[in-house]
Amino acid sequence: MSSPISTEIQGNVLVITSDNPPVNALGQAVRQGLKEGIELAAQESGIEAVVIKCDGRTFFAGADITEFGKTPQGPSLPEVCDAIEASDKPVVAAIHGTALGGGCEVALACHYRIAVPSAKLGLPEVKLGLIPGAAGTQRLPRLIGAEAALPMVAIGNPVPAAKALKIGLVDQLADEGRLAGDAIAFARSKIGQSIPRTSEGTANQDGVKNPDIFDEFRAKNGRKMRGFDAPNAAIEAVKAAGELSYADGTAKERELFMKLMSGNQSRAMRHYFFAERAANKIDGVSADTSLIPINKVGIIGAGTMGGGIAMNFLSAGIPVTILEMQQEALDRGTGVMRKNYENTAKRGRMTMEQVDGAMALLSPTLDYGDLADCDLVIEAVYESMDVKKEVFAKLDETVKDGAILASNTSYLNIDEIASATKRPGYVLGLHFFSPANVMKLLEVVRGKETRDDVLATSMKLSKKIGKVAVVSGVCPGFIGNRMLSKRQEQANKLIMEGANYWDVDDVLLEFGFPMGPFQMGDLAGIDIGWHRDPTKVTTVREALCAAGRFGQKAGKGFYDYDEARNRTPSDEVKQIIADFASKAGNEQRDISKDEIRERLLYPMVNEGAKILEEGMSQRASDIDVVWINGYGWPLYTGGPMFWADTIGLDAVVAGLDSHGLEVSASLRSKAEAGERFN
Length: 678
Ligand code: T1G
Fold this sequence. Notes:
Shape: globular
CATH superfamily of the largest domain: 2-enoyl-CoA Hydratase, Chain A, domain 1
Strand order of the largest sheet: 12-11-10-13-14-15-16-17
Radius of gyration: 28 Å
Bound molecules: (2S,3S)-3-hydroxy-2-methylbutanoyl-COA
Strand content: 5-15%
CATH class of the largest domain: Alpha Beta
């Protein structure tokens, strides 16, 4: 098989080129070819400088993640990087696309780096539960200082070329389309000069002007890093760069890297990396299915969901016509959208010009006729089948043929909604999660008649608006809410049996969720949907509302809140629950956190098994993608189905049996056969 690496001598410069689609991952053949290229440069006296570049869409985007967990084959990436850096002829990295992970480390091993303005450079290993493993944590701080290196290594976001130039990660910007030529000229200009080797830099030794930066960084990013092992390891590695010799620092990095590589968190996060990409693929629908052009979107309803949904399209530069029934509701809705954008601008995440640009694409209307030329219309009206069928019938009459009609319903039957139209093939569900302009998950609900091109268009469009889309079949609650209802059912039962409601929340918090169900209730507002009659008390929630416990906004809900919104369990609430429990004749008992965790999470796994069995989800990893992006399931456990594999399906079944909870046939048979979901 021909090597993905080719070499060409242009005058006195050796150009080493990688052509390893799709992203020039640094697989064994690439590493071998790079090493041989550097050896060639050393042997040939006519070669006075070297350029390393990549064909295709990007410079090396990292080690080949598919090789992880397999027996390593030499040469290792650290070996290749050291060979590059040891060259006594200047080596220039010519960067376009995304120089990430091992790709950035190859660039750091080069003596110089030039990049096109659209390029990005980064060390995202931490997003895979790892840290850089080819001396990135030791070279980068020596090149740009620990303070600039810390976020790159411990958070893992890439920096654009302009910023890379500013912080010294890149030496020069090249013209788009002239990268190779500029790199060769740049390399020639360095012939005869002393070779700058990053690993020899000691800038970082005294470059850490303020050793407190590490604790300050931890304090500032604590919430984001909560529960993850890799960020702390990354901080340790960067710290070591300022305290140890290069040799000792790389040994420290290797030790930290190997520990993470063999840990559950990295296995889970690597699972998620491929799971998110697999979710894009629709079984039985070819990747080259023709797509329906979406140039104009209609949204029915300018409430919280409708407005949030609209913002996704406006932010992606797609014009939106938004319809309400009353002018006042329309004005309120568009006002909220502008306010949301302005708040984002205040946080420096967009400019006011961008705010105005997005809002300029919005056309508010009270007239269905203005939706006629939309290519896609999404309704976000009241969750009532009758109302939705009425809206779809009207859309079917008004909107041009061939347009997609989508419902944002969170659990209603899409096939029944489609039956209200003469175009069921063009009907599907696009279930956004609140706040719709923030949450990444989009459940794409495939009706029994939904056409392949409608489905493929929706999946592609989801990516354009920055969503992670997962295909779901038609069943109550689709994938996420269907599993959530099982957890909520147990949460409500547990507190009726004597479990402390704060233990229920704490179990989920300690597991890694952002909050538990009772905290969530206080945040959203206990009084949502309350009938406002304090004399009519039939549920715990109604009792809380009757006692004025509306949630955080009232300073009290399930919890009492201080001015900083810190929560304290309430004896009054504990008594309210106990009264309900005794009225229902429930025997009370102390319930351990272990039992709470098993009863909250195992039924979700069981429901996931049923969803798979019924074909409501294409694959177990899709369920993981739903829960990580829609409900805050901790990424470092890989999602409910991967987590169940990790603890063992036999343990899940034994737990469910011990609590007298349902075990689906497929889950039990998988457990008995020693199988995994993923
Ligand atoms: N290894 C193997 N396959 C990869 C890959 C990688 N590093 N990156 C992408 N792919 C596949 C991906 O699965 C998909 O396959 C296709 O390429 C297109 O990807 C030693 C240890 C580069 C920004 O973490 O962030 O280096 O689905 O759909 O949206 O210190 O891919 O087509 O079959 O994502 O244009 C560090 C991971 C690795 C970068 C492009 N590097 N990749 O995004 O395309 S660890 C990363 C990305 C490491 C060293 C350490 C993105 C991208 P398929 P895509 P995209």
